[in-house]
Amino acid sequence: MPEKDPLDQLQEAWAQMDVPAAERDLLEEDSLTQESVAFLQQAWRQVETPQIVLPRLSRLLRILTYVASAAAALLVSALVFFMQPKTPHKDIASPSVMASANELPSAPKLIENNQKEVQVLAGKVRLTMLRKSGISPSAQTNDS
Amino acid sequence: MSDFQPPTSAPSTDLIQKAARGKAEAQDSWFRLEFPCVYRLCLGFLADAVLAEDFAQDAMLHLLDRLDRWNPERTYVAWRTTVVLNLCRDGVRKSGVRQRAEDKLKLHPEIHSLPDPSDAAAGKELRDVITQALAQLPPREREAFVMKDLEHYPTSKVASAMGITSAAVRSLLALARRRLRGILGPALDMKASRKTGGSRA
Fold first, then answer.
1. Is B172 domain-assigned?
2. CB neighbours (10 Å) of residue A96?
3. What total of structural domains would you count in chain B?
């Protein structure tokens, strides 16, 4: 005959134990209260313990669950990233936007280049760069 | 005071210390010995069978990680019960178990029939009645009732686990028992009257 699992033996012993005598304060309660408590005490004896997952297996399961949930989260993020409509930062980098950025109203012109300053005009924008005193324009710029 | 000790009262100090040192065999034995009791505590504190299973497994790993912190001068059962109780309280706060229990109450406001508590085959049905009845108790009353009347811990241990006085435990118990009479009483009355063929005073 196969030997019984110790847990089953424990469960059986637990279920077969008599409920201990009621305490004095419980005996002071009315009979219906005593019956209600006695019912729950007897029912409590029949509560079955779910299957035990031993610590090593339990830890392994936890790690696997963690890895699986992290992988699932990554997969979902990747799907969301690839399936979403084009975002503004992509548009900026797209060739059409770059081309339009290059289409300036007019090419920049050097309008002033003297001992004190250099001025460049591009459309309506004028850029003025002041020279440090004592440096000649030829040493500062690569202008031809 | 009752001298009754549940069969899963406490593993030996030697076994606990070996398990704390990481001996795999001792850990397995400790797990087998402790899981039923920890599960019942979780079932009682949470009044939810599915959650109790998850919480019990978590609580076991939590306890195992902290076994080396247990001071042998303190009763092991009291230490373990306090840890499980605090875990369940935290879990209730975080996961909205209370809300679910309240929703359940709305769905099952009354217990109409009771299975035979000595019938081992009615295990699931009995567990449902237990969780349904316990779910209707306020958390502190439920904790006191589970530890004292269902697990038969001495009042002083219940008081120490809950961080209250023994007198406060006794008054929580009285409230819980009367509330349970209100929950189970009508069904018990009905059962008794069916047996006797008449009504009970």
1. yes
2. 8
3. 1
In a domain, A35, yes or no: yes
Q: Is residue A115 part of a domain?
A: yes
Nearest Cα to Cα of residue B41 among A123, A49, A65, A97: A49
Residue B4 confidence (pLDDT):
41
The per-residue pLDDT for A132 is 75
Residue % of chain B over a pLDDT of 70: 83
Global model pTM greater than 0.95: no
B67 touches chain A (CB under 8 A): no
- Does residue A12 fall inside a structural domain? yes
Note whether A37 contacts B180, CB cutoff 8 Å: yes
Q: Do B127 and A56 touch (CB under 8 A)?
A: no
Upper half-sphere CA count for residue B81 (Cβ side, 13 Å): 30
> Does residue B3 lie in a domain region?
no
Choose among B8, B33, B61: nearest Cβ to A58. Answer: B61
Is some CB atom of chain B closer than 8 A to the CB atom of A23? yes
Q: CA separation (Å) from B156 to A141, B59, B82, B144, B169?
A: 91, 23, 13, 11, 9
- Show residues of chain A in contact with B120, CB under 8 Å: 15, 46
Domain that holds residue A82: 53-87
Contact B188 A35 (CB under 8 A): yes
Query: Which residues of chain A have a pLDDT value below 70?
Result: 1-3, 17-23, 55-61, 85-106, 133-144
In a domain, A97, yes or no: no
Is residue B107 in a domain? yes
- Give the domain extent around B176: 13-196
- The alpha carbon of residue B171 is apart from the nearest alpha carbon of chain A, in Å, by 10
Taking contacts as CB-CB distances below 8 angstroms, the residues of chain A near B185 are 32-33, 35-36
Provide the domain count of chain A.
Answer: 3
3-state secondary structure of B44: helix
> How many whole angstroms separate alpha carbon B14 and alpha carbon B80?
16
